[in-house]
Amino acid sequence: MTFTDTTRERAREIIARYPADRSRSALLPLLHLVQAEEGYVSPAGVAFCAEVLGLNKAQVGAVATFYTMYKRKPTGDFLVSVCTNTMCNVLGGQEVYDTLSEHLGVGHDETTADGTITLEHAECLAACDYGPVMTVNYDFFDGVDASTAVGVVDELRAGGRPMPTRGARLCTLKEMAVQLAGFADERDGAVADGGPGEPTLRGLRLAQQHGVSVPGFDPNTPIRSKAEADKAAAEAKAKAEAAKPAPVEATTAPVKGGDGASAPTGAAGVAEPAKPEAATGSTAPDVKAPDDKSPQVRTAETRQSDASTAAPDASGTKVPTDGTGTAPAAGDARSAEAAGVAANAPAGDGKPAGDEAGAQERNLTEAKAGTDADGAGPADASETGAQK
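The structure corresponding to this sequence follows.
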């Protein structure tokens, strides 16, 4: 599939939100973007994301198959999700799902013949205080039962847009995917409807009833635009800079030590401050880790003293020591490993490790001689030998 110019332009806008060397962080919104055009993440969508991000298709596919919000086959205009987890299930969630499945003639992750509705059961929709709940394209319908759920899907199939209990008016799955990619809902008055749920408002009402509020909070303060917020931040920064005390000029007078002698001075004659001791306990001075290496490589090079490219300690890590406080010389770890291998020969064929013939012969000799390590008599020794 060839994606539209609008999708490609939006893809460039998404990628531009991230640092140049971290562009792969744009993968999640890009997957929503291709889903907004096709209705699901197709092989062509995977290839598109790999192309614009410079990744291979296996890397993109691994992410697309991990998250359930990315659909891997064509999905209906309305994704109906019914919570069947513990709380909603106790309140009738499973009954709601079973009724919808029978009414629509589809099972989990299946789409009706007219392509309108895809049904799925969800493990949790994070709305236990409104259970049982179901969502349509991730907008909530709270406190549903089998009858109201059937009414919602019938209205959707008839071309209607039932109003969610909480949130804005319904949109199609493709329109929702555009929003999940990070773009505003362009429909006129799309966010004008809806409202909060009663359990959500309960905490606010209790705070109002008991006079609980954040000190200095004014509920009538309007939300500032980004330009206003940036301007206020710049003014605050300038004010803070102006409030800083002027720097103290250096003097050439010597600083006396505790014994009356002059303390060491720097080039300008000012006493040099004592350098704080390193608090990390590292055996090497803290250095900035090289940015061109992954954290795993830096950690391995820091901890493995034999590495030919070993880097100095990064902050908070230590080079292993031999107990005397000194790091082992290069090659010691390999020598120790070789010595361990030599001292532990592999077991012979069909014989467990440590089952040596010498021990068996010694036991038989002791039994035959009629004595053991404790000086027991012939009878006891024979019994001991037999036990051995």
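Residues 226-243 form the longest helix (18 residues).
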